[in-house]
Every structure is written in structure tokens, then in C-alpha cells.
């Protein structure tokens, strides 16, 4: 049974005069092709529109992105560094809502009650400061590569965490790895009190709703990217160990649709982790400081990639379990990533550092 209309109406009556304000942060950069879907989905939300503010943090778009922002009554702030982490950090500083949702310009809230359900679940569970969606969903007739990217991000992350964020697997992974301390027809309350294996969670993505007022109490939360992107781990350390996952709340992800566009983004992540300390701390380099076990596991990745047996096994396993042939390319992606990591560390040894560029690699950032 899905989130019932009866329950929604009851909750509406209870809080109709006290709807908390919700801020939605979207990082944009030449987003005219994908942004309308994202903004239309926000317009369709059942949550009162006068209690929603949409902040677009733009990295210098030269297309019609800013015109779209004006047409949809969005608030726009510039993002000089263009990278999405800095954009979301700016958004959190500017947000005025009690709750904040971060959503990418190519992500669409499929359930029209997505915002309402997250707010209700958080209001009902005062110990929880985070409400997750049900996982990423591949759009109909969209390239198969989309599922690989949405579920695992990249082959290195798949190897380190084996943590699926796909709509058909996310809830199963949460149930398998962590304790469910409360459940009803509408959501799960997951306890991270006993984390036995490394976990990858970034609260500034995946349409996650967070209690901004709570995270304001964590030192440096909205000051530096290395704290901001790893707020989940700081939240656990501070004693708030329960998180909500709302059921039947998928996030449709219109990610890059070709390997030609995917490879530069993987390379960008590797370069930042190897050469640029501050940027690297926003990603894996920052996580390994908070999860010591992955610090050593990373050295096994080249072995996993180049011996082929292990990466080929995973390629076949995931292609069968996902019924998606694109996963057969996993071993090839592993070789590319492992080779890039080794090459970038070689450049670092000889003191030759690449330029710091925008996320798509097309713009040099000074």
C-alpha cells in the first residue's frame, strides 16, 4: 500500500497553517536541455508553492538557462568555480527554508507528493534530520549507461562500496546492511548506529531533504566543501544516527547519455583527488579520512582491474542481476580508471599538475 490519500489529508489538516518552508537547490551550467523537466516536476508538487523557494546556482551558463530560471521564478546566484559542490555550498548559505533539498539539473521528482511526504516523515520523527528518496530510476527509452551511472557513479566507487542507489535495489541494500528500527506503509527509519562496512552517502545530492537548522549546528557545515559533502559522517559522529527513506519516491535521473560525455567526468574526479587537495577532500580523499578502512582497500583497485578475473566476474554478475548489458563494460571502465589513477600519480611525482577545469573539462578555472 502506498502513501494513502487519507493519511496525507489528515496531515494536511494538522499542519495546514504551519507548513515549514522548503528550499530547493539546483546547480546549473548550460542546463537548458534538461532543466525544464526538473522545474516542471517541482511545479507539480502538492506542497504549497508559496512555501517553496528554488535557488539556481549557476556556473556561468551561456545558453538559455538563466531565461528559464526567470520564467520559473527561480532565485539565481553565481557560482564562479562552476563545480557542483561549490554550487550547493553557496545554495545552503543562501537558503532560508527550515528544510533543504538538493537536486541536480538532470533529476526529476517523479512522485507529486515527494516534498510533502519527506516533510511529514521528518515532522513525525524528531530524532531524524534526513529524508532520502527511494533511489535513482532510469528514464524510459533512455540509454542503458544511465543505470550504471545512477547506481554506482563510477567503477572505483562500485569496487570500494558495492552500494547500489538504483530504485529497484536501494531499499534492499539498506535493509541488508543496516537496522530498520521503524517502518510503516510510507517510510523506513534506518539506524546507522552499527556500521560494519564502508558506506557512501552525500546528503547534498539524490533529492535528499535535510533539516538545515540542525546542520547549522555542525561546525564548518556550510563553510568548506570537505565538511559539507561529508555531512552524513559528521552527523553520525554527532550522535544523530537515524535516517528516513521514503517509499515509492523515485528520482528519475537524466544523466550523461554517452561514454564520450562520461569519460571526461570520471577523469575530472580523478584529477581533483590526486592533484587538488581541497577538491579531492570533497570526494574520496575526504571520505577515506572519515572511513579508515577504505584508505587501504583503494590499493587493491588496480589489482582488481588488471587481473580481469574479478572485474569480469562483476561485469557478468551485474549485467545479469540488472538485466542490462551495459554492465558488461564494467571491466573496461575499471581499466580506464585504474590507468588514469596511475598516470595522474605519475604526473604528481614529476611535479606536473593539470589545470583545474569545470566539471565537463571544457573551462579552465583560475
What does this structure look like?
It is a single chain. With 366 residues, the protein is of the alpha/beta class. The chain folds into two domains: 249 residues, Spore Coat Polysaccharide Biosynthesis Protein SpsA, Chain A (Alpha-Beta Complex), CATH 3.90.550; 91 residues, no CATH class. 44% of the residues lie in helices and 14% in strands. The chain contains 18 helices and twelve strands. A nine-stranded mixed β-sheet has the order 3-2-1-4-10-6-11-9-8, sandwiched between helices. Strands 5-12-7 form a three-stranded mixed β-sheet. Helix 2 links the parallel strand 1 and strand 2. Helix 12 runs parallel beside helix 18. It is globular. The N and C termini lie far apart (53 Å).
Compact summary:
The chain crosses the membrane at residues 299-320, 326-346. This protein is α/β, with parallel strands linked by helices.
Which descriptors apply to this entry?
366 residues; alpha/beta; Spore Coat Polysaccharide Biosynthesis Protein SpsA, Chain A; 2 domains; 9-stranded mixed beta sheet; 3-stranded mixed beta sheet; 44% helix; transmembrane helix; Nucleotide-diphossugar_trans; Glycosyltransferase family 2 protein
- Anisotropy-based shape: globular
Strand order of the largest sheet: 3-2-1-4-10-6-11-9-8
Which class of secondary structure composition applies to the elements?
alpha/beta
- Stretches where pLDDT is under 50 for at least 5 consecutive residues are none
Please report the first level of CATH classification, the CATH class of the largest domain: Alpha Beta
Beta-strand residue percentage: 5-15%
First and last CA, distance: 53 Å
Helix content: 40-55%
- Please report the number of helical segments: 18
Report the radius of gyration as a whole number of Å.
Answer: 20 Å
Overall number of structural domains: 2
What is the string of helix and strand elements?
HEHEHEHEEHEEHHHEEEHHHEEHHHHHHH
Could you tell me the mean pLDDT? 90
CATH architecture of the largest domain: Alpha-Beta Complex
The major sheet is characterized as: 9 strands, mixed
CATH topology term of the largest domain: Spore Coat Polysaccharide Biosynthesis Protein SpsA, Chain A
User: What's the number of extended β-strand segments?
Assistant: 12
Question: What is the CATH superfamily classification of the largest domain?
Answer: Spore Coat Polysaccharide Biosynthesis Protein SpsA, Chain A
Protein name: Glycosyltransferase family 2 protein
Keywords: Membrane, Transferase, Transmembrane, Transmembrane helix
InterPro entries: Glyco_trans_2-like, Nucleotide-diphossugar_trans
GO molecular function, one term: transferase activity
Amino acid at each position: 500500500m502506498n502513501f494513502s490519500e487519507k493519511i496525507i489529508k489528515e496531515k494536511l489538516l494538522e499542519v495546514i497553517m504551519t507548513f515549514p518552508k522548503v528550499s530547493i537547490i539546483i546547480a546549473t551550467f548550460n542546463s537548458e536541455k534538461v532543466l525544464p523537466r526538473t522545474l516542471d516536476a517541482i511545479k507539480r508538487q502538492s506542497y504549497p508553492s508559496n512555501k517553496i523557494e528554488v535557488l539556481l546556482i549557476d556556473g556561468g551558463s551561456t545558453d538559455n538557462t538563466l531565461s528559464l530560471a526567470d520564467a520559473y521564478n527561480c532565485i539565481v546566484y553565481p557560482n564562479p568555480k562552476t563545480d557542483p559542490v561549490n554550487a550547493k555550498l553557496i545554495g545552503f548559505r543562501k537558503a532560508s527554508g527550515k528544510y533543504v533539498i538538493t537536486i541536480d539539473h538532470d533529476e526529476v521528482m517523479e512522485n507529486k507528493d515527494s516534498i510533502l511526504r519527506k516533510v511529514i516523515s521528518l515532522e513525525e520523527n524528531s530524532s531524524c534530520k534526513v529524508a532520502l528518496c527511494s533511489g535513482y530510476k532510469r528514464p524510459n527509452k533512455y540509454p542503458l549507461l544511465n543505470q550504471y551511472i545512477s547506481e554506482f557513479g563510477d567503477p572505483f566507487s562500485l569496487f570500494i562500496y558495492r552500494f547500489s542507489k538504483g530504485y529497484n535495489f536501494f531499499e534492499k541494500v539498506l535493509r541488508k546492511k543496516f537496522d530498520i528500527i521503524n517502518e510503516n506503509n510510507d517510510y523506513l527509519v534506518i539506524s546507522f548506529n552499527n556500521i560494519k562496512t564502508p558506506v557512501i552517502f552525500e546528503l547534498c545530492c539524490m533529492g535528499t531533504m535535510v533539516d538545515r537548522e540542525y546542520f547549522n549546528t555542525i561546525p564548518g557545515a556550510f563553510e568548506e566543501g570537505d565538511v559539507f559533502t561529508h555531512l552524513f559522517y559528521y552527523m553520525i559522529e554527532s550522535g544523530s544516527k537515524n535516517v528516513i527513506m521514503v517509499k515509492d519516491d523515485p528520482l528519475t535521473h537524466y544523466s550523461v547519455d554517452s561514454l564520450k560525455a562520461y569519460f571526461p567526468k570520471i577523469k575530472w574526479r580523478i584529477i581533483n583527488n590526486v592533484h587538488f587537495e581541497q577538491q579531492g577532500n570533497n570526494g574520496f580523499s575526504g571520505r577515506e579520512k572519515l572511513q579508515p578502512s577504505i584508505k587501504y582497500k583503494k590499493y587493491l583497485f588496480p589489482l582488481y582491474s588488471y587481473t580481469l578475473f574479478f572485474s569480469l566476474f562483476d561485469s557478468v554478475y551485474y549485467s545479469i542481476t540488472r538485466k542490462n548489458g551495459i554492465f558488461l563494460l564494467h571491466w573496461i571502465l575499471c581499466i580506464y580508471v585504474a590507468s588514469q589513477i596511475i598516470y595522474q600519480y605519475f604526473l604528481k611525482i614529476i611535479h606536473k599538475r593539470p589545470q583545474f577545469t569545470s566539471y565537463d573539462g571544457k573551462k579552465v578555472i583560475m
